């Protein structure tokens, strides 16, 4: 591939491979192979050449290369812990909805009548069903609640070829019904959930989560309760999506 004139932007072929590249193999890459350089300033670039001491790249701008020598990026080998092939359509698999949830948790809360406690299970994915036993105002009860599970953001942000852990936040609007002794009946709810996950999305272990909920009884919205639960869940991602 012949580079264009200085300052031009050209779309170039992208390697179909995806994986880590050794420094020795890096020297033999075809010019303008798109790579991901991991380091103090991680990012995409297009390979130009490599020596024993440094890597030289052209910057990546929206998946295209800017062939301008004055803008070349230079990475000293000592500051580069990893280099990877980077297809243009490389996907952030942490974006979006949880593909499946099977969780168990419990906690406590408070309302005008004093403290309360509860425990139960959570089943679903983008939509969940919560089945809970609780005790409010000295009365036993059981609630069934359906909620949408809408992704917000993750901390820290996504980085290609990373397997680090992160916390992902979701908001959960829902409706439910509480039967048994004490208050409530039908209600609406608003929840915020934080789940500890990792970038591999192939966990064989449960993920811990924390959830805060405010419930609003239909017959007295101002007389609701606040609840905080802690639990574990099997949580997986499909292709997930908060754009």
Report on this model:
This protein has 243 residues and is mainly β. The chain has two domains: 78 residues, SH3 type barrels (Roll), CATH 2.30.30; 140 residues, Beta Barrel (Porin). It has one helix and 16 strands. The chain is elongated and about 75 Å long. The N terminus is likely disordered.
Annotated CATH topology of the largest domain: Porin
Taking pLDDT < 50 over at least 5 consecutive residues as the criterion, the unreliable ranges are 1-18
Could you give the order of strands across the largest sheet?
Answer: 8-9-10-11-13-14-15-16
The overall number of domains is 2
Tell me, rounded to a whole number, the average pLDDT: 81
From the 3D coordinates, which CATH architecture of the largest domain would you assign? Beta Barrel
- Overall number of strands: 16
Mind summarizing the main beta sheet? 8 strands, antiparallel, barrel
Strand content: over 45%
SS element count, helices: 1
CATH class of the largest domain: Mainly Beta
Features:
mainly beta; disordered N terminus; Porin; SH3 type barrels; seven-stranded antiparallel β-sheet; 243 residues; 2 domains; eight-stranded antiparallel beta barrel
Secondary structure elements and their pairing?
Layout: E1 8-10, H1 23-26, E2 34-38, E3 43-50, E4 54-61, E5 64-67, E6 73-76, E7 82-85, E8 98-111, E9 114-124, E10 127-136, E11 139-148, E12 150-155, E13 165-180, E14 186-198, E15 207-217, E16 225-237
Antiparallel strand pairs: 1-5, 2-3, 2-7, 3-4, 4-5, 4-6, 8-9, 8-16, 9-10, 10-11, 11-13, 12-13, 13-14, 14-15, 15-16
């Amino acid at each position: 591939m012949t580079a264009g004139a200085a300052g031009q932007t050209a779309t170039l072929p992208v390697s179909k491979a995806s994986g880590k590249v050794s420094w020795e193999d890096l020297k033999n890459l075809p010019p303008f192979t798109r790579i991901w350089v991991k380091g103090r300033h991680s990012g995409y670039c297009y390979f130009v050449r490599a020596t024993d001491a440094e890597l030289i790249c052209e910057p990546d701008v929206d998946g295209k290369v800017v062939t301008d020598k004055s803008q070349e990026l230079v990475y000293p080998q000592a500051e580069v812990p990893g280099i990877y092939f980077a297809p243009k359509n490389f996907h952030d698999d942490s974006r979006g909805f949880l593909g499946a949830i099977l969780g168990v948790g419990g906690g406590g809360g408070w309302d005008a009548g004093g403290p309360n406690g509860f425990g139960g299970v959570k089943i679903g994915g983008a939509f969940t069903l919560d089945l809970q036993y609780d005790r409010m105002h000295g009365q036993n009860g059981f609630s069934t609640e359906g909620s949408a599970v809408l992704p917000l953001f993750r901390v820290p942000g996504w980085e290609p070829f990373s397997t680090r852990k992160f916390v992902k936040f979701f908001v959960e609007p829902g409706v439910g019904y509480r039967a048994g002794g004490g208050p409530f009946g039908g209600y609406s709810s608003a929840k915020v959930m934080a789940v500890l996950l990792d970038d591999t999305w192939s966990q064989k272990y449960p993920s811990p989560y924390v959830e805060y909920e405010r419930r609003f009884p239909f017959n007295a919205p101002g007389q609701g309760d606040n609840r905080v639960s802690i639990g574990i869940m099997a949580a997986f991602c499909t292709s997930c999506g908060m754009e």
